[in-house]
Amino acid sequence: MHDWKHAHQRVQEHERSKTHRESAEAFFLRASRADICSLLSDKQMSIQREQIRKRRQVMERVINVVKVIGKCGLSYRGHSQEAAYTLENIASNHGNFLELILLLSKYDVCLQEHVKDCIEKSKKQMGSKGRGPLVTMMSKTTVNKVIEVIRSLIQQTIAVEVKMAGMFSVQLDTTQDLTSKDQCAVVVTTVVTTVVLERLIAVIDCESSTGQYFVDLVKETLVTMDINIKHCIGNATDGAANMQGKYRGFSALITEVSPNQVHIWCYSHILNLVLSDTTRVVVASESLFCLLNDIAVLIRDTYKRMHLWEETTEDKRRRRLGVIGETRWWAKDEALKKVFGGFAKPNQALYTDVIITMEKIEKDMTIKPSIRSKAQGYKNALLRYETILTAEIYLRIFENTSPLSKYLQTSGIDFVTAQHLVTGTEDNLRKYARHFQSVKKAADNFVEWANGILEEQQNCDAEAQTALAEKRTKKKKRRPGELAEDDLIANADKNYEIKIHNVILDTVVESIHHRYAANAVLCADVSCMDPKRFPEIREKGLPNTAMKELSKCLLKFDDRATVEALQAELTSLAQHWESHYKRSTTPGLPPPVMTLERILMKVWSL
């Protein structure tokens, strides 16, 4: 436009033109979203947004169900009837996940509509291969993806905790599942502020059982979590050869990758090996526990024998005899206590009930002769004085080792307390190593108590032996050139004391001392930091050898942690401990910061 003198005329002409009217109408339709394009696309977009909203609601419920099932430790899937078109059949078991979804759908409109829609679509596709375009969000694929996301989020949280702590220790062990696949559990332990955190980070199917394979497994797991393996200061394993091997074992190979670590043999597993050594050292020990296991199996084998046992015993809470397993070492303690009671405490024993039950089985003519013969043999074995003596020996041993075993299997145990309990158990058993007369006295009291009850029973001829049977000693012929005869022990009590009692006690004491000696020096240094020893440190000071082993471990992380510095700081802490403790427990006052206390918490996390 060049003629601006008549601009208002040109504007009026344009406003009256058809092009302007159509453009203005199109603009107002677009502004009010009433045009054809908007009407078509907006309806589709609104439908899509509504579908997304509903599917998000369904997914929220699916995630919550997965979390609940995982929290309760239940299985997700059933054996069959998992297809969507089968969900209408309420008589079938669809598995925990689908059953919870169906239960929630009764009270949730959104989930109810989704389930019905999936059932209808699934029926239309029934008979075709695969699920086609149908996405139900209730299949095993969805559940596995949700579990995988939860695992990833948990690992991220644990990685943040480990990085915050700055150092960590690793524990791993394997076991077989129901399908005979070896599963390896990897656990990391860290200390954040003053809290010891023990976290499971992975459960992995094992393809091999060599030490190198487990080192690679741990490295790959830590790399996926972005955790530096060189910050590992300790590892804890059991006593298997692939873990404890000096050259190709896991602990030796991981030391090459992370030289700053200390290997800790699982204290519970060590105790298991100690008790295994002790219960196999003499034939009398093995015979005792095999006898208890065989009696439990015989009684529980049929309902008729179980009925005879229930008729005999009066204590319904303790009348089930336990079978002794191969891996649960506390089962021997439980089985022995049920039958023989406590050491020198026979009042709670089921010994007489077992004897009476065996005699009933023996005299019951409706039972097979082979079973009656077994019952007679078990009864005669229980009545032997040697069996009772051996039982009292192990009752005394378990009286000292059971509290230690239970403490070692608790979560959040204190390392110093555990070492004190180990030392105390060893000292107590060493003190009893030659106290055979107290064991014999307990056995005599047990026999007197048992015979008193058996005499009151009608139609019961059983009676426990009151002494060891004397054995005729065979005199050996002197060989040519021999100057003296072997001294043969004629007294049965003395022979039992030397060959059985002393051997059992010496074995358990030496086994504890030998197997727990690997970290004894480090434990001694850590025990110096126990506040209970601070009065002794204030009075006598620290030994010259104290803190040397601990200093070797800490110098790898802090070059200031010399022996002299640790001894001086520990002495200062002991001198001011009472005032420091009062201040830290006073409301409103911030706790004082001491380097040694932080070191103490990190070392205790091992």
What percent of the residues sit in helical stretches (DSSP H or I)?
55-70%
Structural class: alpha/beta
Secondary-structure element order, N to C: HHHHHHEEEHEHHEHHHHHHHHHHHHHHHH
What is the mean predicted local confidence, pLDDT?
81
Gyration radius over CA? 38 Å
Low-confidence stretches: 589-606
Largest sheet: 5 strands, mixed
Q: N-to-C terminal Cα separation, in Å?
A: 89 Å
Count of helices? 25
Strand content: 5-15%
Shape: flat
What is the β-strand count?
5
In total, how many domains does the architecture comprise?
A: 4
Spatially, the strands of the biggest sheet line up as: 3-2-1-4-5
Structure commentary:
- The chain has helices spanning 7-15, 18-31, 36-72, 96-105, 109-125, 140-165, 211-224, 241-244, 250-257, 267-279, 283-300, 303-312, 330-340, 351-363, 369-383, 385-408, 415-431, 436-456, 492-515, 520-527, 534-540, 548-554, 563-575, 577-584, 595-604; strands at residues 168-176, 182-192, 195-205, 232-237, 262-265.
- With 606 residues, it is an alpha/beta fold.
- The protein folds into four domains: 46-128 and 137-145; 166-265, Nucleotidyltransferase, domain 5 (2-Layer Sandwich), CATH 3.30.420; 272-470 and 491-515, no CATH class; 520-604, no CATH class.
- Strands 3-2-1-4-5 form a five-stranded mixed beta sheet.
- Helix 10 (267-279) packs antiparallel against helix 19, helix 17 runs antiparallel to helix 19 (492-515) and helix 17 packs across helix 20.
